[in-house]
Every structure is written in C-alpha cells, then in structure tokens.
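Field log, afternoon session.

UNIT: design team B
ACTIVITY: writing a sequence onto a fixed backbone
BACKBONE:
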C-alpha cells in the first residue's frame, strides 16, 4: 500500500471512544433520579416525572416518593425496562440547521440523535439546547453529574457564537451590546465581542432561552445565521457540519475539573 493510501486509511478510521465505568461501590447509595440518569435513560428532571407518575419500580415495588436512594445491586425498572449503569461516553456534534435538540420528536423531524444513533449503542442526551435553526457545537453524554453542572448557571460556562443579522449592527450598537443591555428577563452582556466579515462573534456565560437572538432583537433586527463555535473550551476543529467525534481523555477531565468534579480514571 502506498504512503498516501496508508495516510488516507488512518484518517478515515473512526477513533475509539474513551469510556469509563461509573465507580459506585456495591454498597454506595445514590438518589433514584440520579441512578436513572446515569443509566442513560433520561435526564434527572425527566426521571422525577417518571417517578411521580408511578412508572418506576425498585426491587419489584412501585416508587413514587422523591429522594429514594438505591445501590447498583438493586433492580430498577422504568416503564418495563430494566436499567443498568452504563459506561460514561462523551460526544461532540457539529449540529446542522433544521435539527431538533431532543432525543425524539413526535412530529418525526430530524433530531440530534439521528446524527449519532449508530455512534455508541448507548443512550446519551444533549447538554443544554440549541434551537432548531442554530448550528454548531453540541455536547452529548450519559454523565449526568457533568451535564447538570455544565448547565447550571453558577458555573458560568462560556459559549461562543458567530452571529449574522438581517441588518448589520453599527459600531455604537456593538459597543452598547458589549457594555450590557436590559432585556425583559434582566441584563445581558456580550463578552469578547469582535466583528467578522459576516457580522460579529460574542461569548456569553448564561443559558437563557434564545439569549443571542433576543440581543439582536433589542436593536430592531433579527439573527439570520447563528452558530456556536465554542463551548466550555471545546471547539469544532476538524469536525465538519453534521459530523461528530468522541471527546479525548484530557478534554473530558478538563470539563470535570471546570465544574469541580473528580477526574475519571480511564485505566481502571
């Protein structure tokens, strides 16, 4: 095989995932909603809904009380499906436009799960949301603790976007945006604001609904193109639109360190 063909083969080979067992001892107990989330079934909040609706059984008994704790040797069943703790897995997706950030859609529209459904054979779910028309970096994992902390406002995780608006903002408007504006749900500020050939780039540290779009609407214009290019230090380098990759070990532990979680031992 020629050197060129060898290089092409290596480049096309899918990188293996960095997975790690969830290191709960057999006697350690964790909250039921956390256990369900760490099995990759759904988020903790959704798990609470299943519990309240009487759709969760622990050791063949229906549990509806919040705060119940279980251990990994317990039998946990949700809607007839027995759960078990999966290995943690982490993916980065370059989300295309017109893709729904959800695990399923009743209207059968394309979801982010359609983009990675054959990736792991495990249930992962998005960390936060990008609206249907927003493109770019989306993290997916079954590591519930990491996902919850990355989304919690107290950790102020940085998100950077490329923005194009129907009418270009003036220098004065961009200056006002960088200084801070007042929206209906409180003040908002663009950080690290720079102009680009198509518009501007900014960073935010909040997860409020449609925040960047509402910033543009404040100045009487609309966003026509929005792409997240950075999230918590991760970028889209070498990930084409609609493609995904596994996170590297150092990236995973950098995220955990950022939100004050212990690093994972990938050699266990």
């Amino acid at each position: 095989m020629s050197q060129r063909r060898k290089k092409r083969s290596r480049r096309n080979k899918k990188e293996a995932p960095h997975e790690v067992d969830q290191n709960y001892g057999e006697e350690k107990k964790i909250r039921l909603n956390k256990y369900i989330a760490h099995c990759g079934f759904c988020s903790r909040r959704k798990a609470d809904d299943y519990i309240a609706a009487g759709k969760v059984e622990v050791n063949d008994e229906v549990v509806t009380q919040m705060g119940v704790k279980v251990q990994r040797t317990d039998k946990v069943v949700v809607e007839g499906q027995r759960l078990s703790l999966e290995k943690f897995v982490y993916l980065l997706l370059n989300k295309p436009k017109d893709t729904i950030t959800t695990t399923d859609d009743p209207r059968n529209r394309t979801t982010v799960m359609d983009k990675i459904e054959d990736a792991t054979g495990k249930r992962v779910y998005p960390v936060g949301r990008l609206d249907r028309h927003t493109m770019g970096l989306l993290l997916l994992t079954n590591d519930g603790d990491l996902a919850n902390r990355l989304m919690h406002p107290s950790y102020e995780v940085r998100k950077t976007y490329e923005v194009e608006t129907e009418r270009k903002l003036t220098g004065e408007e961009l200056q006002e945006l960088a200084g801070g504006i007042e929206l209906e749900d409180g003040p908002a500020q663009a950080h690290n604001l720079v102009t680009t050939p198509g518009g501007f780039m900014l960073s935010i540290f909040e997860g409020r609904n449609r925040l960047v779009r509402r910033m543009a609407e404040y100045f009487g214009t609309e966003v026509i193109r929005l792409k997240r290019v950075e999230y918590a230090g991760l970028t889209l380098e070498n990930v084409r639109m609609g493609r995904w990759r596994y996170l590297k070990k150092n990236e995973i532990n950098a995220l955990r360190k950022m939100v004050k979680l212990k690093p994972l031992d990938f050699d266990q």
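LOG NOTE: The domain at 29-82 is CATH 3.10.290.10 (Structural Genomics Hypothetical 15.5 Kd Protein In mrcA-pckA Intergenic Region; Chain A).
NEXT ACTIVITY: expression trials, pending approval
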